């Protein structure tokens, strides 16, 4: 039984970066032995274990045989005779197919260190074709390491995957997992790879333009990308609530017309309340031409005490709201 540190932790260490997670690979062991040593099994499709004291993940070395569509349909072989080289051959990129033993010796059968020095993304083997999610991972890595280039052979693989229809079999959750990581880097690099290699269907349809992003906030980047593509971008991808709320607010202000009729503005501002005041003010920072007028109207409107007026004058609250909003709008238009 031998234990190796593997994957991204080795890559990040060689790049001088701090790795968020450390993955461990166990060669020459079995499920029974791992359980006897006190590890807790958590993997369903193939054996992954939690270390009894550190709680880090340890996986048995494995080989894979594709048995269906997407990134889940695989049969796994994890017998004790699976070698470190066989396990690493199934990984996506050469820079992620390195391991380090307990003597700090790097095992690098696919020249990952060379590709790291040359700043190249290169797939390890033909196994790359079998998992369509890896195409999106290339795009994600490009956002995180934008100075790296995609090897010409891997470009051919991306084009090939785009034509298989396999991307349709990915889950929305896994796709957005790659998006979320990319949004924390140079999202435009992720989008460029998706667009240039035909990887947009079905999750990133309607990519016509990639804007120059004004913010590092992921939700704002998403909204900017949506606006640049007529709010048709990634319509079939399930996004977190914070993204959908921000997108709704962004789309609302993107269509605001400064010189429109009073009835239009009453309808536009009547839906605001204290619950979305801060979100509105934050969003309007990115719309300088309408920011002053909109912030002034919204703040005064949501802070007006309509309840007090209605209780003393016995008036219909909706009618009072409309009349007061009309006066607020006219005041700030002057």
Topology:
Blueprint (H helix, E strand, L loop, with lengths): L1 E5 L1 H8 L7 E5 L3 H6 L3 E2 L6 E3 L6 E4 L2 E4 L7 E4 L6 H6 L9 E2 L5 E2 L4 H6 L2 E2 L11 H12 L4 E2 L1 H11 L9 H12 L3 H10 L21 H11 L12 H14 L7 H8 L7 H8 L3 H16 L2 H8 L3 H17 L1
Organism: SAR86 cluster bacterium
GO biological process, one term: tRNA processing
Keywords: ATP-binding, Magnesium, Metal-binding, Nucleotide-binding, Nucleotidyltransferase, RNA-binding, Transferase, tRNA processing
How would you characterize the overall build of this protein?
With 334 residues, the protein is of the alpha+beta class. It has three domains: 1-120, Beta Polymerase, domain 2, CATH 3.30.460.10; 132-254, no CATH class; 255-333, no CATH class. Helices cover 46% and strands 10% of the residues. The protein is built from 15 helices and eleven strands. It has helices at 8-15, 31-36, 84-89, 112-117, 133-144, 152-162, 172-183, 187-196, 218-228, 241-254, 262-269, 277-284, 288-303, 306-313, 317-333; strands at 2-6, 23-27, 40-41, 48-50, 57-60, 63-66, 74-77, 99-100, 106-107, 120-121, 149-150. It has a seven-stranded mixed β-sheet with strand order 3-4-5-2-1-8-9. Strands 6-7 form a two-stranded antiparallel ribbon. The protein has a two-stranded parallel sheet with strand order 10-11. A hairpin with a 7-residue loop joins strand 6 (63-66) and strand 7 (74-77). Helix 5 crosses helix 8 (187-196), helix 10 crosses helix 12 (277-284) and helix 12 (277-284) packs antiparallel against helix 13. Mean pLDDT is 91; it is low at 67-71.
């Amino acid at each position: 039984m031998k234990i190796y540190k593997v994957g991204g932790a080795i890559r990040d260490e060689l790049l001088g970066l701090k790795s968020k997670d450390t993955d461990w690979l166990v060669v020459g062991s079995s499920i029974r032995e791992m359980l006897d040593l006190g590890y807790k099994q958590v993997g369903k499709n193939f054996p992954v274990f939690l270390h009894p004291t550190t709680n880090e993940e340890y996986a048995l070395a494995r080989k894979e045989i594709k048995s269906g569509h997407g990134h889940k349909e695989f049969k796994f072989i994890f017998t004790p005779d699976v070698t470190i080289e066989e396990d690493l051959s199934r990984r996506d990129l050469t820079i992620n197919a390195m391991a380090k033993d307990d003597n700090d010796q790097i095992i690098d059968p696919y020249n990952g260190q060379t590709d790291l020095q040359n700043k190249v993304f290169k797939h390890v083997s033909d196994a790359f074709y079998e998992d369509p999610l890896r195409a999106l991972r290339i795009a994600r890595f490009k956002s995180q390491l934008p100075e790296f280039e995609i090897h010409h052979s891997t470009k051919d693989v991306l084009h090939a995957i785009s034509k298989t229809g396999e991307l349709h079999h990915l889950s929305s959750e896994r796709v957005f997992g790659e998006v979320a990581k990319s949004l924390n880097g140079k999202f435009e690099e992720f989008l460029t790879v998706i667009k240039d290699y035909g990887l947009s269907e079905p999750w990133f349809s309607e990519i016509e333009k990639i804007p120059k992003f004004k913010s590092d906030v992921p939700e704002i980047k998403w909204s900017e990308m949506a606006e640049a593509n007529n709010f048709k971008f990634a319509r079939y991808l399930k996004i977190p609530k914070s993204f959908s709320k921000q997108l709704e607010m962004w789309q609302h202000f993107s269509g605001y017309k400064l010189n429109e009729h009073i009835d239009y503005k009453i309808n536009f501002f009547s839906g605001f309340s204290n619950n979305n005041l801060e979100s509105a003010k934050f969003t309007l920072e990115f719309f300088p031409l309408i920011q002053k007028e909109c912030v002034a109207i919204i703040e005064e409107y949501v802070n007006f005490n309509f309840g007090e007026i209605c209780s003393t004058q016995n008036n219909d609250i909706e009618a009072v709201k409309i009349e007061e909003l009309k006066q607020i709008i006219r005041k700030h238009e002057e």
